[in-house]
C-alpha cells in the first residue's frame, strides 16, 4: 500500500497563498502519478490538478494560472502551490496516488479562504 500524509492547509484571506504538501511512502515514488482533488461542503468532489513523472501537468480550468503542481522525487513529496486564492477555493483538499496497482488517498487538509 501507499501511505499519503498531507500538510499545509489553513486559513488565508482572499488573494493570499498556501502551499500544500503530500508525502508518499510504501512504494516506488517515481512510478506514481498524483492528483489533487477538493471537496467543499454540499458539493461533489472536484479534480484540481495532476502530475506524472517526469513533468506532465494538467489543471482544472477553475485553478489554471493560479495553482501549480510539482514534485520532488528525492523527498517523495508532491506540492500544490495555490496563489490568488478565492473564497470559492475553500474546501478539503485531498492527495491521490495512482498506478496500475495503486489508488491511495491522503486524509485531507482544510483550506479556508475568507475575509
Helix and strand arrangement:
Elements: E1 3-7, E2 10-12, E3 18-25, E4 33-39, E5 46-51, E6 57-59, E7 67-72, E8 77-82, E9 91-99, E10 102-105, E11 109-113
Parallel strand pairs: 2-11
Antiparallel strand pairs: 1-3, 3-8, 4-5, 4-9, 5-6, 7-8, 9-10, 9-11
Explain what you see:
It is a single chain. The chain is mostly beta strands. It has strands spanning 3-7, 10-12, 18-25, 33-39, 46-51, 57-59, 67-72, 77-82, 91-99, 102-105, 109-113. Strands 2, 4, 5, 6, 9, 10 and 11 form a seven-stranded mixed β-sheet that branches. It has a four-stranded antiparallel β-sheet with strand order 1-3-8-7, with no helix packed on it. A hairpin with a 6-residue loop joins strand 4 (33-39) and strand 5.
Short description:
This protein has strands at residues 3-7, 10-12, 18-25, 33-39, 46-51, 57-59, 67-72, 77-82, 91-99, 102-105, 109-113. The protein has 115 residues and is mainly beta. The protein is globular and about 40 Å long.
Amino acid at each position: 500500500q501507499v501511505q499519503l500524509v498531507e500538510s499545509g492547509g489553513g486559513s488565508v484571506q482572499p488573494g493570499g497563498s498556501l502551499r500544500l504538501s503530500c508525502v508518499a511512502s510504501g512504494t516506488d515514488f517515481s512510478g506514481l502519478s498524483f492528483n489533487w482533488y477538493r471537496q467543499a461542503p454540499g458539493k461533489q468532489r472536484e479534480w484540481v490538478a495532476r502530475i506524472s513523472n517526469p513533468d506532465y501537468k494538467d489543471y482544472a480550468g477553475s485553478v489554471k494560472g493560479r495553482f501549480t503542481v510539482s514534485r520532488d522525487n528525492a523527498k517523495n513529496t508532491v506540492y500544490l502551490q495555490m496563489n490568488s486564492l478565492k473564497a470559492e477555493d475553500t474546501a478539503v483538499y485531498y492527495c491521490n496516488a495512482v498506478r496500475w496497482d495503486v489508488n491511495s488517498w491522503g486524509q485531507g487538509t482544510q483550506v479556508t479562504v475568507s475575509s
